[in-house]
Specification:
The chain is 75% helix and 4% strand. It has 110 residues and is mainly α. It folds into two domains: 66 residues, no CATH class; 35 residues.
Length: 110
């Protein structure tokens, strides 16, 4: 075996970043608990609730209705009315809160 091949064979195995695999595995080991908790309490419920929204009659008799609930929601007048009220509330409170907080901060700074 040539010297070049021997040198390459004796190098530590590493990922694409040049770090040894042990460092990469250690990083994943530290990230794993947070990823598991995030998946259990955020990601899984999100997909589960979406799947439930496509059905009707829980828990006795489950019937798949597809996007009918979303169609009913968008075509109903109460959804659009609640969007208008929310937009009106946000446009009224956010600017006033910002202006008031800047005025109070300015008074406290002087």
């Amino acid at each position: 075996m040539s010297d070049r091949r021997r040198e390459i064979a004796q190098r530590p195995i590493s990922g694409g970043s040049g770090r040894p695999w042990a460092h990469t595995l250690t990083a994943y080991a530290f990230l794993a608990p947070a990823a598991i908790v995030l998946g259990m309490f955020c990601i899984f419920p999100l997909f589960y609730v979406f799947a439930l929204s496509l059905t009707e009659g829980w828990p006795a008799h489950v019937e798949f209705v597809g996007l009918a609930h979303y169609k009913e929601l968008l075509l109903g007048g109460s959804f659009l009315q609640s969007l208008r009220v929310t937009l009106w509330y946000a446009l009224g409170t956010v600017p006033m809160t910002l202006i008031l907080s800047f005025l109070i901060a300015n008074l406290l700074f002087q």
